[in-house]
Amino acid sequence: MLLRDIRKGNVPKINQITKIIAHVDPDIILLTGIDYDFYNVTLEAFADLLEAMGAPYPYQFARRPNTGLATGLDMDGDGKINTARDAQGYGRFAGQAGMAILSRYPIDSDRVQDFSALLWLDLPNAHLPSVDGQPFPSDKALKMQRLSSNAHWVVPVVIAETRLNLMAFHPTPPVYDGPEDRNGLRNGDEIALWSTYLNGGLGMKPDGAPFVILGDANLDPYDGQGRHEAIHALISHPLVQDVQPRSLGAVAAMKNQGGVNETQQSDPALDTVDWKDARGPGNLRVDYVLPSVGLDVTNAGVFWPTPDDPDFALLRADGKDASRHRLVWIDVEIGQK
User: Fold this and answer.
1) How far apart are CA 95 and CA 68, in angstroms?
2) Are 237 and 198 in contact (CB under 8 A)?
3) Mean per-residue pLDDT over the chain, rounded
4) Are 155 and 130 in contact (CB under 8 A)?
5) Is pLDDT at 250 greater than 50 in this prediction?
6) S-S: 42 plus which of 3, 9, 73, 221, CB 3.0-4.6 Å?
7) Which whole-number Å values give the CA distances from 166 to 152, 158, 287, 306, in the listed order?
8) How far is it, in rounded angstroms, from Cα 162 to Cα 8?
9) Contact yes or no for 150/66 (Cβ under 8 A)
10) CA 125 to CA 254: how far, in whole Å?
11) How many CA atoms does the CB half-sphere of 21 hold within 13 Å?
């Protein structure tokens, strides 16, 4: 259906997303929530749309995510099997809402590291769900449960003879579960995978190349639900810079929308998603672009214009948001030192 909508060329949501990407014009971008197919036909069609708008991305990367990958077991403890929540990652079909990378620089696909098949229980210091001391939803389910609800990739991109490793991920939201906190624990451990990897805890050490961690972590450092210590540990890791991309539009949204936003602890300028303000988590910082220490970051921001900015029109079409999430970006200089 996504491929159909892309080929139609007249679906407002897709048109707005492509306009935003073409306007911000990043050299490399991680897409989340894009359906995966084996031959990457959908991704190529999306790249064709961008090229027609003057934003070419000749290099593309995607692999099968864990979303919709059937297990044949009851993975969420509701007594049913073969539902969207019983897959390795939530999905009504295999590949739903996966991830993809578009780049103007060559991608070294032969050197990609893919941690998506890592079992949750094999993560050092994993926080596994239980009820009354018993594995939740069952011992059998936990023994086959992968950690990644979507994927964890280390994708090398070659820029001016320098290799930049893109560490891409999209954890599960830390909600939609029960008192066992299955999703909250999993979200925290999906984020913790990167700290474990940087510390050499996955049986291999990073190759020493500069890197950027990027993705929708579905977790704010202070506000909303979830285990905030997980994202704190990542953004404060000694090998990671948190340059705190910000926008004026997020501040304006907080003031205009009110609701739960008025009680939050985080700096509203850092928010990256516009969620419900009444009976909801409000606007939060959940999307991250975290460069490694030593990378020269010259600028950073979140594409969230204020209502009086002409670019604000890019966020909405036919009264609907292009996305609840805003595009987070950083500028880095490669090979300058």
Assistant:
1) 6
2) yes
3) 96
4) no
5) yes
6) 3
7) 10, 11, 15, 30
8) 39
9) yes
10) 37
11) 28
- Contacts of residues 220-223 at CB distance under 8 Å and 24 or more positions apart, as own/partner, are 220/266, 220/281, 220/284, 220/285, 220/286, 221/266, 221/285, 222/264, 222/265, 222/266, 223/264, 223/265, 223/266, 223/281, 223/282, 223/284
pLDDT, tens only, 175-233: 999 999 999 999 999 999 999 999 999 988 899 999 999 999 999 999 999 999 999 99
- Give the tokens for residue 19: 């306009």
Q: Residue 96: give its domain's CATH number.
A: 3.60.10.10
- Show the tokens assigned to 111: 């050197």
Angle between helices 12-24 and 41-52 (to 10 degrees): 60
One-letter amino acid for residue 14 of the chain? I
Q: Which comes out higher in pLDDT, residue 30 or 13? A: 30
Angle made by CA atoms 174, 171, 163, in degrees to the nearest 5 = 150
Tell me if residue 155 falls in helix, strand or coil: strand
Query: Do residues 138 and 86 lie in contact, with contact meaning Cβ atoms separated by under 8 Å?
Result: no
Domain carrying residue 99: 2-333
Please give the structure tokens belonging to residue 40: 């990457």
Q: How many CA atoms lie within 13 A of 212 on its CB side?
A: 25
Q: Are 25 and 50 in contact (CB under 8 A)?
A: no
Question: What is residue 18's three-state secondary structure?
Answer: helix
Counted domains in the chain? 1
Taking CA 43 as the corner, what is the angle to CA 104 and CA 286, rounded to the nearest 5 degrees? Answer: 80
The predicted-structure confidence for 259-312, as pLDDT tens digits, reads as follows 999 999 999 999 999 999 988 999 999 999 999 999 999 999 999 999 999 999
What letter represents residue 224's amino acid? G
Please give the model's pTM, rounded to 2 decimal places: 0.96
Query: What residue has token string 């979830």?
Result: 226
